[in-house]
Amino acid sequence: MISARGMYIHIGALIGTIMAGNVFTVIMPSQRALVAAVTEGTTPDPAWGAKAKLRSTHNTYIVLPLLFIMISSHYPMTYNHQHGWLVLVCLFIITAAARWYFVLRHTNRQNILIPIGVVIATLLLIYAMSDKNQAEPVDMSSAALVGKAEVETIITTHCVGCHSSKPTDAIFTVAPAGVMLNDYASMLRWMPAIKARVVDSHNMPLMNKTNMTQQERDTLGLWIAQSNQ
User: Fold this and answer.
1) Tell me: the pLDDT tens digits for 45-77?
2) pLDDT at site 146
3) Which region holds residue 177: left if phi is over 0, alpha if psi is between -120 and 50, else beta?
């Protein structure tokens, strides 16, 4: 089953392929045909220019959505949302509208209502994505104390492959962002980052490549809550 982040990556790959296809199969051949017609002194076929313009317009309006997908790993609240696909659709519309404003501006046809609409739409999307149900406070008195060994086992299993002085991960040969979790003291030091990236946003492990379970995330969250008492 494809992950939420994986869905974004697949859509981004599809968009990138479409953009490259537009360039290499329509835009560049049309330009070559027009240049050849001018060179040979013949009348250029206007259909070539029309096709190239249409595909260029397509690329113009999907470039910002593609750029967002490329950096979306920094915004897990989008793809981890229960309606992540709908969030992406809204972001497509918002970023395409922003691009539309600059296209008009380049032709001296500014429309101030477009950026105002983009800002309003963005704020509405943020509000719609926000969690309006306050979580029930954890009853610490009845919760079992999370032991040091349990925390070390979870973090060693899911995090130390990348975040260590000598990573064993196939991709990361140096600990990302300098975060090293080789020992319990380091785990305590990076506790705020663990809470933000593992417990709250589920942004780590990257694409959940080590298959961390929700129960393990909850255990780390309980450990952090107990440590902060």
Assistant:
1) 889 889 999 999 999 999 999 999 998 877 777
2) 86
3) left
Q: 185 with 204: CB under 8 angstroms? A: no
Report residue 99's pLDDT band, with 50, 70 and 90 as the boundaries.
very high
Q: What is the pLDDT of residue 57?
A: 93
Tell me how far the alpha carbon of residue 22 is from its chain's centroid.
24
CA torsion, ordered 185, 187, 191, 197, to nearest 10 deg:
160
Taking the alpha carbons at both ends of the chain, their separation in whole angstroms is: 39
What's the CA gap between 125 and 144, in Å, rounded?
38
Distance CA 147, CA 219 (A): 10
* Contacts with 229 (C-beta within 8 Å, 6 or more apart), sequence order: 140
Three-state SS string over 171-201 comes to CCCCCHHHCCCCCHHHHHHCHHHHHHHHHHC
CA–CA separation, 226 and 229 (whole Å) = 5
Q: Could you state, in order of their start, the residue ranges of all structural domains in the chain?
A: 4-129, 148-227
Name the nearest CA neighbour of 162 among 188, 192, 197, 195. Answer: 197
Residue 89 backbone dihedrals phi, psi, to 5 degrees: -60, -45
Distance between CA atoms of residues 219 and 228, nearest Å = 14
SS (H, E, C) 117-168: HHHHHHHHHHHHHCCCCCCCCCCCCCCCCCCHHHHHHHHHHHCCCCCCCCCC
